[in-house]
Specification:
single chain; mainly alpha; two-stranded antiparallel sheet; two-stranded antiparallel ribbon
Amino acid sequence: SLGEHPAELLARLVDDGLVRHIEKRDMFGLLPPGKQRQETLLDDYAGDAVRAGLAEHYDTFLRINDDFKQLCTDWQMHDGAPNDHSDADYDAACVDRLVRFAASARPVVDALAAALPRLSRYGDRLAAAAECVERGERNRFTGVMCESFHDVWMELHEDLIVLQRIDRVEEGSF
């Protein structure tokens, strides 16, 4: 959620056995002791007032999340087959929809950030990804591990689930 990997902090978390570094993918993941520590910290920075503020806008997030999932499907599929991106008009229409989606999602992200200010970073990261797609960096639409719009959106969604202590399976929000 920082938009970068603070090397010193991550190294300390790895050394403390809270986080593991997956070298092949240059990713970090919580280990069970890290998950336990996170649960303790959640009480400090995402207490009842923060959760109530997030909950106030989470239904709107879920509604537009459905719109975004459809947009991603439309980008990846065309006429019932995988999109080979040879139809420039079709792709341009999807890119235009993404840019409009990003603009319409910003107030929702801002409302969530009113409950927890660090969430405001997502608005900037989403806007940057949409701008990159609009400039022709098509991998920044749904690409994996490239700070794509989809990557950032999924990270925001997971952050909201963790902050509110929502069971993703129970909620059914995939």
